[in-house]
Design a protein that fits this description.
The chain is mainly alpha-helical. It contains five helices and no strands. The protein is globular and about 40 Å long.
Amino acid sequence: MTEIDFSKMKSELIKIYDFFSKNPQDKKISYLITKYDSIYGGLTAYNETLTKSPVPKEIEQALNGLSTIYQYGLWEDTHEAFSNDKIVKEARKILEKLKKENKK
């Protein structure tokens, strides 16, 4: 099994969320989110199946957030629970949590 550098992942997620929060409609960030989620999105399943959660909570939340962005996107605003405003607002909250945890 490959070892994952969660510190590096946190930095990458900060960059992705920062770019998204500033340019949510940009096609480049949509591509990056989809690509990152396809590579790392499954990691959160380990926290559900193992007794000791190997994926830090803030990274788990960030990866789950990428899945929400990638699945519901910002191309329509008809889904009440995942409206564009809610997706961007939640992404900014996740970004702040990641930045806060990154300073520790």
